[in-house]
Design goal:
By secondary structure, the chain is an all-alpha fold. Helices cover about 80% and strands about 0% of the residues. The chain is built from 13 helices and no strands.
Length: about 290
């Protein structure tokens, strides 16, 4: 190897090393930007009101767990959380019951009009619930569907159905037809094949859908604020917004930050428990879908 070639190789190696170093620094900065507010929120939730106002960046002198007690009792975060859990569970149930069979039919069956139905569902990706919130409110008011957690869940599930069908159809198409044919030979019908063969094999896609939908339903604010007016049925985002308005006058910042931490815990737990499955599902969907 000549001196010129060795010099070029050394320059390329140095450039690659600098590129990796720059990427790592960038990722560290991004991590700090995301993680620091969360850590600050946790520390602020353990401070007194005086500490929050006088030294917001300092560590708490003592752990004031009473803030969490007041968040559950005075601020009623627990009631809002129960409502959110009910809405999310019902939304998930309605969404999976509708999306899984629809994706199975569109992804694995051939029939006249399949392309039209597929395009029809895909067109729903461009329609957000916020854009149709006024006619939606009028229609639900005329049908006496307001202040009902089930109908709010149905609206959530309907709004997420186009994306869910789009996501699951790719997983359904990636499953070899040999499994389906073997199940049919054994006497299994369409529903038996779907739930005994297809659903277990499409589990990564279903888990990915569950995680995305959980984040969407748990944090949704506009529809919940519009369709639910009864304080006893409001969800976590509405409860936090009301709590922030109250704290403007009550100045109980400790319970406010404690409420924010309580809301973050389910989201962090769901992501931590399903992060590996989520990554696998996204990789499979990207390669096979």
């Amino acid at each position: 190897m000549s001196a010129n070639q060795a010099s070029i190789k050394a320059k390329k190696k140095t450039s690659a090393s600098l590129g990796k170093l720059a990427l790592r620094v960038f990722l560290l900065v991004q991590t700090f930007i995301v993680v620091y507010p969360l850590i600050w929120n946790v520390f602020a939730s353990l401070k007194t009101n005086q500490e929050v106002m006088e030294s917001p960046w300092a560590l708490p002198t003592s752990f004031n767990w009473d803030n969490y007690v007041r968040a559950f009792t005075t601020a009623k975060i627990g009631d809002y959380m129960i409502n959110s859990v009910l809405v999310v569970v019902m939304s998930m149930g309605v969404l999976l019951l509708a999306a899984v069979p629809t994706a199975y039919v569109l992804g694995r069956m051939k029939f006249r009009g399949r392309s039209f139905l597929t395009n029809f569902y895909m067109a729903g990706l461009f329609i957000g619930g916020v854009y149709i919130i006024v006619p939606l409110f009028i229609m639900m008011n005329d049908l006496s569907m307001l202040d009902n957690r089930f109908w709010l869940s149905a609206v959530y599930a309907t709004g997420s159905l186009p994306f869910s069908v789009f996501l699951l159809t790719g997983f359904m198409k990636s499953i070899p037809h040999d499994y389906e044919e073997a199940a049919m030979i054994d006497g299994s019908g369409y529903f038996g094949t779907l739930f005994k063969v297809i659903v277990p094999m499409a589990r990564p896609g279903i888990i990915t859908l569950i995680v995305f939908s959980f984040f969407d339903f748990w944090n949704e604010y506009v529809l919940a604020m519009t369709l639910i007016t009864d304080d006893a049925k409001k969800t976590i985002p509405i409860g936090l917004a009301n709590l922030m308005q109250i704290q403007t006058f009550a100045t109980d910042w400790g319970s406010l930050f404690a409420g924010l931490v309580i809301v973050l815990v389910p989201t962090i737990l769901v992501y931590a428990l399903l992060q590996k499955k989520l990554t696998q599902g996204m990789m499979l969907g990207g390669v096979k879908g």
